[in-house]
Amino acid sequence: VKKGVETSDLPVYSLVLNGEDHVFPGDKGRLAVKASHEFAMKQMPFDLIQNINRVDQLSKLPAPHREPLKSTKQTMRVAPAVMLLTEKNDTSSLYVSLAYQYRRYARFGESSAKTLRLAK
Fold first, then answer.
1. With a threshold of 0.85, does the pTM exceed it?
2. Which residues, including other chains, have CB under 8 Å from residue 76's CB and lie 6 or more apart?
3. Distance CA 104, CA 83 (A)
4. Strand 81-85 to strand 20-23: parallel, antiparallel, or no bridges (unpaired)?
5. How far is C-alpha 6 from the geometric centre of its chain's CA atoms?
6. Cα Rg of the chain (Å, integer)
């Protein structure tokens, strides 16, 4: 009688980002919380958020990643921008998630603790 569970019989943990599947390699069959968190953070699309250090950089936020609109009536003249002013030095995973969710509709920027002048 064989005891235990084969790791190949367990469900697979993966993330889908821009239509591409990123499979969690696992930790010898265990889904360790720390390892899964590190995996998820490595997959986060931090490139969607531009770090803003100077006022003149505000006008250089990249355009949103858009799919073709179905109707020409839906076109926007100016894409909205979301700017996060924070005292933290690291970009939060929640903000990156919002940037990914709304990447077709808005531009995202962040100014961290080192640039307090932008908050004024």
1. no
2. none
3. 16
4. unpaired
5. 33
6. 20
